[in-house]
Amino acid sequence: MGIVPLCFKSGEDADTIGLTGHERFTIDLPSNINEIRPGQDVTVQTDTGKSFTCTVRFDTEVELAYFNHGGILPYVIRQLTNQ
Predict the structure, then answer these.
(1) Which InterPro entries match (predicted)?
(2) Average pLDDT value for residue range 4-32
(3) Distance CA 67, CA 69 (A)
(4) 58 near 5, Cβ under 8 Å?
(5) How far is CA 54 from its chain centroid?
């Protein structure tokens, strides 16, 4: 799972921010993955210089664990091998 699910802040969307769909994004996540929390706000920067805030849509600690392990399958395999 190499995807970080994000949600625009209330009242914002791609049009109001002026996104075209052709941008590349840099997401300002904490460098320590254990510092990411469900519902945390992060800054997103585009390659065109636009910057805006989104909410990380990891809604539970379990979803964060999946992300930490690289997805559901690696998480399950690690759990099985640790038994």
Answers:
(1) Aconitase/3IPM_dehydase_swvl, Aconitase/IRP2
(2) 93
(3) 5
(4) yes
(5) 9
